[in-house]
């Protein structure tokens, strides 16, 4: 079939001028070229700095003498043997996410303390990033008798340190400031917001101190309001992660047995489930079950799809079992009840398990995994990774084109092209 038209293109019924024809032809050629690249190959694409192309067609067959990975925890997929951190592109569309001049670097570190584990919340008004340390982990220094730590960093300090370094890739190490919180906040593990001008923290609880959903003032003295700490009189197991629905502004969270599995909570009394909480009426209901260990969650930009990470392959003191889920499931969100329906596999993880989940403004899905952050398009195609070479539990956008990645003993900043969703709700 000919690519030429029998008549010149028209706009609003009028013949386009020659410059218009040239522009239209150029735009059409560009769109065709991009579409061809996305469907066929990376041919002709030049990766920017800190970016490596891993074309699946080159690695789909390893051969009988190939170096197969033994498991998803002790090794990760890095066929080019590139030193982390870097961007790993599996699909040409990943370049639309990272842009023409991306960078990724370490911005804070403490090799002896897993200070940067979960609950990342960016406050736009002050440009501060809040997060929590590891609860129950070996480097978290928290257990049945000891709480974990909530802290923050100042993003302008980060940008100043990066500018002073004179490099786009060299690490910097900014100040980490712990928060002094009351004992109603125990083992903070998830967070989002700001919600009603506060940090919305989900806390796993510790020992006999209850697991809870709390509002914390980001400004000292950091007063706390407990929104929820029971299900009709019964304690939850250990609440894990939380998001606010972009349309209804109701709060959704996961409850899982990790507190017990990591020896800082008593024996579980409820199934592993996903809940919906209305902070205005106090109504609480289950919207999804049937998980091994539900963990991170997120919504599509319009709120019609929910993503839930199942980290069943990681079992705390029960060990790791690669035949259990390391899977992100997608659900349709009922527009009236907001129950989760039409469960389907969105993605299975090749490195570790999917922990925290975020979605960018274009609907691409991000999850913290065993080697960094993985990114899928809306169809569930893995298009790229922010490969840091170590486990990440969560990440958050801290303004347009800025993705902050928590990596236990370090924090990374990726400067890219896309924007995150609006997570601030009044």
From TrEMBL:
<dbReference type="Pfam" id="PF08450">
    <property type="entry name" value="SGL"/>
</dbReference>
<feature type="domain" description="SMP-30/Gluconolactonase/LRE-like region">
    <location>
        <begin position="118"/>
        <end position="401"/>
    </location>
</feature>
<dbReference type="InterPro" id="IPR011042">
    <property type="entry name" value="6-blade_b-propeller_TolB-like"/>
</dbReference>
<dbReference type="InterPro" id="IPR052988">
    <property type="entry name" value="Oryzine_lactonohydrolase"/>
</dbReference>
<dbReference type="InterPro" id="IPR013658">
    <property type="entry name" value="SGL"/>
</dbReference>
<protein>
    <recommendedName>
        <fullName>SMP-30/Gluconolactonase/LRE-like region domain-containing protein</fullName>
    </recommendedName>
</protein>
